[in-house]
Amino acid sequence: MTDFGYKEVAPEEKTRLVGKVFTSVASKYDLMNDLMSMGIHRLWKRQFVAGCGIRQGDRLLDLAGGTGDIARLAHKAGARVTVADINHAMLTVGRARMDEAGLVQGFDWLQVNAEALPFADQQFDHVTIAFGLRNVTWRDRALKDMHRVLKPGGRVHILEFSKVGLPALAKLYDGWSFQVLPRLGARIAGDADSYRYLAESIRRFPDQETLAEQMREAGFERVSWQNLSAGICAIHRGAKV
After folding, report:
1. Is 114 annotated as ligand-binding?
2. Is 120 annotated as a binding residue?
3. Among the four residues 49, 55, 62, 230, which has the most C-beta atoms within 10 Å?
4. Residue 84 in marked binding region
5. Where are the domains of the chain?
6. Are 111 and 117 in contact, with CB atoms under 8 Å apart?
7. For residue 157, what are the CA distances in angstroms to 6, 49, 123?
8. Does the annotation place 85 within a ligand binding site?
9. Whole-structure pTM value
10. Do residues 240 and 229 lie in contact, with contact meaning Cβ atoms separated by under 8 Å?
11. Quick one: CATH architecture of 2-239?
12. In the chain, alpha helices (H)
């Protein structure tokens, strides 16, 4: 059994349910991100990509690439980007956004399961995953496959919601997550349950040091992490030596 928010479900059922969540919210995903974070997610993502150390021509795999925010920033920094997501609806929205922006060249789009990457060993200089790792059914498998497809010297970069370090902020954050977000989801996306799951999935995700240790167990070295907004989310990075 594994977790789907606060529920315990069979692994194959989690994969199906997560797929249902993101198919439901895909068309409103970007708008809801802006509303849920009051636009702060854009600052988090810019800081995340700015710290990746991308050099011109680097090959970057963006997992759970969704609607393309990370891919666009990485491309602007000089990377050749493969955008991968398990959810077809999210990829469709992302490609449409890029087309509207006139960004047709420099991206590959693939429907991919992060636990079984269809790439040969040592293909990428960077692997990024932003707000997607907590939705993976078998996190250990995904981390090991990220390690496998990186070149020696390549780096993994993970941006994910984490554990808030300030008790007063944590209390406010809980109220926002469990009272406000489902109501926003109902009003804007017509789906309160998916946003309730997203709030629950954050609470079930490992804290900063636990995730760092899981990265080490997958083979990554020089693992580090940095809190953003007092730990509402965190950036983890690791290297393949």
Report:
1. yes
2. no
3. 62
4. no
5. 2-239
6. no
7. 27, 9, 16
8. yes
9. 0.95
10. no
11. 3-Layer(aba) Sandwich (3.40)
12. 11-25, 29-37, 40-50, 69-76, 88-100, 139-149, 167-175, 181-184, 192-204, 208-217
